[in-house]
Amino acid sequence: MDELSAESLLADLKRVEAERTRRAADPALEARVLALKAFQQRRFAHTYADLLTDPRYQPATRFFLHELYGPDDYRQRDAQFARVIPTLTRLFPDEVVDTVAKLARLHALSERLDTRMAEHLPSPDLTPAAYVAAWRACAEPASRREQIALTMAVGESLDRLTRKPLLRQTLKLMRGPAQMAGLGALQHFLESGFDTFRAMRGAGEFLATVRRREDTLAQALFDGDMQGLSGL
What we know:
By secondary structure, this protein is mostly helical. It has one domain (3-229). Helix content is 75%, strand content 0%. The chain has eleven helices and no strands. Helix 6 packs antiparallel against helix 8. The longest helix is centred in the middle third of the chain and has 26 residues, at 94-119. The protein is globular. The model has no long low-confidence stretch (mean pLDDT 86).
């Protein structure tokens, strides 16, 4: 990882921390953000209910649900990302570093958009109508396109990693050193992502489905159409 890339990764993590600090100073905003994240996790599970029952795609769908969506607390993982940046290339192969950088960029963008949407919510008691209104008030279609593109990029990176036969063994050998270095959460994410995508035996169809549905839903929300949220 070159110096510029390291600075970019660190800047993304600092942006995430800035969003958390801002919310912590406003408990009402924090409550609305947490409610929003929980709603979005339910929405993802609703949108991909068919994939959650498909033996081939269920693990990857659950990985997306818990690692890229939802109200899970990623503070420990983010802190590990930040701490390991100066020595990232010593511990992880370049392909892994690239995946981590994309995840950090996605994380920073998603946190900012979540804060902005929460600012337009009247209360933590979300309804589909309130969600659509906040989405449209927040706007930023270019940022939403980037968010979807980065989600795809993380998935594509994980899929590429599975085509490197020696990488899984490398990750396994890194387990002990990573734990000793206090990088257990980061190591878990990498191993879980690798195993999940390898088990799919090709992620092309899965990622294309996610891309198509997310693009369609985003446009529907900008148009004020709540059909994609029916039943929530």
